[in-house]
């Protein structure tokens, strides 16, 4: 059983009612379309419609334009329109006709009109063969909008089986090319015929102006709906022989949400002599890419790091270099860049494309020639060795499709002498560096032995030597403290009181010797004018160490006395607990002061 279609017909039925009401006032009687054949390509998410028209002038006066009409609901998704015409009973080689949007008087607001301008007026009784190519985006709507990974992706397309025209149509047909696979449903009509992957309507005959027969096709389309929310394409010209292209992509899968991952392979067709090609994302370089090249093209197949499910998006960057002589030319006193505007990615819709052309520093009289309207402005970019910056021409266009991948030109003037600017800057910089080195090597930078700075340096060196000796004495004191602690541990283990007293006696003798060594050093340090920063800390160190020494000796005496009186171990611990805490705290302060003095 077919899935119910979304409510798309309401706007269509309203349009039909409007068209019926305006027929008498807006029909054009000067032209008649004797034959209209339309072919709609729905094999990708970008819809392409080619209308082949045979137009005849049945009025009394020459006609210089042919009006083309589209419903507003369709025109809002129109990304490109092109017209090709040739006059004669037999269709010959066509020429491109300019197309512009117009607002004919008395036309309904529900329609959008374009005018194909003829190179010469179509005389009475003459025939014009007109081919009109239109490309639409966002015209295939996923339905259902959310599906599981196991389901096929179904989309809906809405159009008219009749060719909507302000002119009468004698005969016309419609052929819709589908991507293959299942066709869920389509609007039934006696003339409708589905054969393989092609749906045909018609032939219809003697249709009045603005004839409209709404149709809806609901079919399976599992092709990737690759949509780039934004692409920033930077083209940087270097007159040293290279044109560097850097393209930043933000791509989303525009198919049904929660759809299984779309085909992760994206194909980019680069110019034939592209080189230094890389492909990376925010994490880093991506190695899952393949490159083929021949004399006509370079093809890059890339695979995003992660799969893209419906509604998911990813960002990545593609960069490559091109030979300067293939894209920058000289004419009439100006250089000009001639390169394609759009993205090299196949079948991608870019909702917002920004093209930045970075010209060499010193470029002036800049002009842009584009094959379609774009928003334009200029910026300045600074790079290595730039002084005033490089001029940047910025072009912005919405809804860019493969048909927009046409050549555009950027003209500018550039003096070849400016090429020498950066090499001369490098040469000058290296010359000044070498000159500075020579001057430095030949200059006597020594300090006079009678100068105040030299004397101050000598005094500071003496202070440093004295402080190092003082540090060594205090470190020896700490080592004696450790030996006393070890003697108490041996006493607790062996009970040998005489050995413990001997260790105490030896420690007393060592402390006296160290005190004698320390006294002249302190006198010398205090007398030096360079010791004003370090002397207060040395005084504090002496005080703390002596306090710790006294408490350590007192604890040693208490423990020995307790052992001689044969007190219990717990009683001994209770007698020395407070002394032990104070000794530990003083030990930490002494070590901190030694570390601080060492840093100074």
From TrEMBL:
Its main location: endoplasmic reticulum. One of its GO terms (cellular component) is oligosaccharyltransferase complex. InterPro entries: Ribophorin_I. The keyword Membrane applies. Residues 569-596 form a coiled coil. Pathway: Protein modification; protein glycosylation. Keywords: Coiled coil, Endoplasmic reticulum, Membrane, Signal, Transmembrane, Transmembrane helix. It is a single-pass type I membrane protein. The chain crosses the membrane at residues 423-441. It is found in: Endoplasmic reticulum membrane. It holds the Pfam family Ribophorin_I. Subunit of the oligosaccharyl transferase (OST) complex that catalyzes the initial transfer of a defined glycan (Glc(3)Man(9)GlcNAc(2) in eukaryotes) from the lipid carrier dolichol-pyrophosphate to an asparagine residue within an Asn-X-Ser/Thr consensus motif in nascent polypeptide chains, the first step in protein N-glycosylation. N-glycosylation occurs cotranslationally and the complex associates with the Sec61 complex at the channel-forming translocon complex that mediates protein translocation across the endoplasmic reticulum (ER). All subunits are required for a maximal enzyme activity. Belongs to the OST1 family. Component of the oligosaccharyltransferase (OST) complex. This is Dolichyl-diphosphooligosaccharide--protein glycosyltransferase subunit 1.
């Amino acid at each position: 059983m077919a899935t119910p279609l979304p409510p798309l017909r309401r706007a269509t039925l309203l349009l039909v009612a409007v068209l019926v009401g305006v027929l008498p006032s807006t029909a054009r009687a000067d032209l008649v379309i004797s034959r209209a054949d339309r072919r709609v390509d729905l094999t990708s998410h970008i819809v392409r419609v080619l209308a082949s028209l045979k137009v005849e002038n049945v009025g009394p006066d020459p006609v210089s334009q042919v009006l083309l009409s589209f419903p507003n609901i369709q025109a809002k998704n129109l990304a490109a329109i092109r017209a090709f015409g040739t006059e004669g009973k037999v269709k010959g080689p066509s020429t491109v006709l300019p197309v512009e949007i117009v607002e004919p008087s008395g036309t309904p607001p529900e329609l959008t009109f374009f005018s194909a301008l003829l190179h010469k007026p179509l005389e009475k009784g003459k025939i014009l063969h007109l081919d009109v190519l239109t490309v639409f985006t966002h015209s295939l709507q996923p339905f259902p909008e959310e599906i599981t990974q196991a389901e096929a992706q179904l989309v809906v397309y809405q159009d008219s089986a009749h060719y909507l025209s302000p002119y009468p149509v004698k005969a016309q047909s419609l052929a819709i090319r589908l991507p293959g696979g299942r066709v869920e449903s389509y609007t039934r009509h006696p003339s409708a015929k589905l054969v393989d992957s092609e749906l045909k309507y018609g032939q219809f005959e003697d249709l009045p102006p603005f004839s409209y027969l709404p149709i809806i096709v609901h079919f399976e389309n599992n092709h990737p709906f690759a949509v780039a929310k934004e692409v920033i394409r930077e083209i940087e010209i270097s007159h040293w022989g290279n044109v560097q292209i850097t393209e930043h992509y933000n791509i989303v899968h525009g198919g049904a949400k929660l759809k299984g991952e779309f085909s992760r392979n994206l194909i980019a067709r680069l110019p034939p002599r592209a080189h230094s090609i890389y492909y990376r994302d925010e994490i880093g370089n991506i190695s899952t890419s393949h490159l083929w090249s021949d004399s006509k093209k370079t093809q890059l197949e890339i695979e995003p790091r992660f799969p893209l499910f419906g509604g998911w998006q990813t960002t990545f960057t593609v960069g490559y270099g091109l030979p300067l002589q293939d894209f920058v030319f000289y004419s009439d006193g100006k250089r000009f860049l001639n390169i394609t505007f759009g993205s090299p990615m196949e079948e991608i819709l870019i909702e917002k494309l920004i093209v930045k052309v970075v010209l060499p520093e010193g470029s002036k009289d800049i002009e842009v020639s584009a094959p379609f309207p774009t928003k334009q402005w200029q910026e300045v970019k600074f790079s290595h060795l730039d002084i005033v910056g490089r001029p940047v021409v910025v072009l912005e266009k919405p809804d860019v499709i493969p048909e927009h991948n046409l050549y555009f030109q950027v003209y500018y003037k550039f003096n070849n002498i400016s090429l020498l600017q950066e090499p001369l800057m490098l040469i000058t910089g290296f010359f000044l560096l070498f000159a500075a080195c020579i001057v430095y090597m030949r200059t006597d930078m020594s300090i006079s032995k009678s100068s105040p700075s030299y004397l101050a340096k000598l005094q500071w060196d003496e202070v440093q030597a004295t402080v190092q000796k003082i540090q060594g004495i205090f470190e020896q004191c700490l080592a004696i403290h450790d030996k006393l602690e070890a003697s108490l541990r041996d006493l607790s283990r062996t009970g040998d009181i005489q050995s413990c007293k001997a260790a105490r006696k030896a420690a007393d003798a060592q402390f006296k010797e160290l005190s004698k060594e320390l006294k002249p050093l302190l006198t010398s340090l205090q007398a030096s004018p360079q010791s004003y920063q370090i002397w207060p800390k040395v005084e504090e160190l002496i005080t703390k160490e002596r306090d710790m020494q006294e408490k350590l000796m007192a604890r040693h005496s208490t423990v020995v006395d307790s052992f001689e009186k044969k007190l219990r171990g717990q009683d001994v611990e209770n007698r020395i607990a407070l002394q032990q805490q104070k000794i530990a705290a003083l030990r930490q302060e002494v070590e901190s002061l030694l570390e601080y003095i060492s840093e100074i």
